[in-house]
Amino acid sequence: MLTIALYLYSLLHLLSSTAATTPPYTPTDYFLLNCGSSSKATSPDGRSWDGDATSKFWPSNIGTTSSPSTATEQDPSVTDIPFLTARIFTSKFTYTFPVSSGPKFIRLYFYPATYSNLDRSKSYFSVTAANYTLLTNFSAFLTVSALVPQQSSLVKEFILNVRDTQKLDITFNPSPNSYAFINGIEVVSIPNNFYMKGDLNPIPLVGSQQFFYIDDNTALETLYRLNVGGNDVSVNHDTGMYRTWQQDGQYIYGGAVGLVPHLEIPIRYTNETPNYTAPATVYTTARTMGRDPYVNLEYRLTWIFNVDSGFLYLARLHFCEFQPEVTKENERIFSVYMNNQTADQEVDVIHLSGGRGIPVFKDYVLSVPVVDGLRSKVDLWLAMHPNMNSKPMYADAILNGLEIFKLNQSDGSLAGPNPEYDMVPAQPAPYPKLPGKENSKTSSWLVVAVSGGVIGGVFLISVIGFVIFSRRRRVRDSGASVVKSSWVQFSISHTSKSTKTNAYRLISADISH
């Protein structure tokens, strides 16, 4: 009897351990291609990459249309796999991946180093996939040079749907007198009805009374994916889709950065928010406004993101109440603003989710029009402020996670302009790594807010500095100007021109660009 009991205990322990380490989602299609390489290799995150020189994903004339190359220099921050080698193209070249139908992540890895004595600043090219234009006249060199904080490589992530053709073509086409290159390609399937829900998910159009329905004719580009108030989340700690979640600190506006509470509690996923939506760590960390209600009522907790004008954007906000102080409805209610327009008048997370420790997300679509007929880089503002209309217990707001996506234009394009080289910013002081998590039964409030007087002074200085900085920025697009903005007084003027699209459906709305 004792032997049977020990056996059952061991079996249950094994099952529970397996369940804890098994990702919530297993992709049906998963490809990792190390371009310019002829052999298998393992990246530092433990994933196995196939060399494209021996793969079945390229055309038979590869020897005459491309060549492999190795970077002549390797930045210490850049991993060998997949960034050490590259595939160089001097004419149009297509990779073909055999895939099942349904939505896919496409991740393109770029390290703009010197390859085969080619001038890295002279590389311009376009990329298309499944009849969508992902990049046009793209310069990886200019794009990397403008990144803050400074980086030497980048990954461009896209989401698109593959029809019943059972194949995914990704085509690279160099601009005239130029060349194209790619270091790595990743293709990962996505659960159905996750980002593109169609009629299942009417999405509010910010600044109007209308709704969007994003169906599987839409292509998206991932611009930001943040673990708000928490540490970076690597691909191996995602939910099976190998997404990366970054800290949000660099995007906070001004000196009023709020608090970053953290408490390890069980997260109870639901049918509406399945367990692959975001890792549990996203929902057990957050950024709130602070403990002082008088200070909270005097400012908006604000993030700023650089985006391309002339597009629609999908913002997915992740919420979960995990602090023991908030357990019932009408205890914390707040408003959400995007570009100084009301996106949501009243958000009560407990009311939306059904209880503490239950995650929920809300989607919003925002139009960022072209300003004065010129396409440019502009700022997208996201802000939160307590709503006291129903007299909640706390004057506060909370955000756990954030994803921002660009939606394709009516011609199927996601391509934006390159940044100007003289737009490259000075390297700021690095943000410190957030303190490590502690297993605690009580709420761990990490106080990073300051007193009301100090907030006011820092905030005023930040506003002045931001306005000066905004006036100095330019982009590579026929001398286009940049929107000058502040959440204190924010407005957009533009000329109207109606466009039509079959990529997403707007109910009784006229979007102007």
Automatic annotation (TrEMBL):
One GO MF term attached to the UniProt entry? protein serine/threonine kinase activity
Q: What Gene3D superfamilies does the database record attribute to this sequence?
A: Galactose-binding lectin (2.60.120.430)
> Which stretches make up the Malectin-like domain?
33-406
Q: Which GO terms describe its cellular component?
A: membrane
The positions making up the signal sequence are 1-20
Q: InterPro entries in the record, alphabetically?
A: ANXUR1/2-like, Malectin-like_Carb-bd_dom
This protein's membrane topology, according to the annotation, is:
Single-pass type I membrane protein
Q: Which residues cross the membrane?
A: 445-469
> Looking at the record's lineage, which domain of life comes first?
Eukaryota
Q: Which Pfam families match?
A: Malectin_like (PF12819)
Q: What is this protein called?
A: Malectin-like domain-containing protein
What is the organism field in this record?
Camellia sinensis (Tea plant)
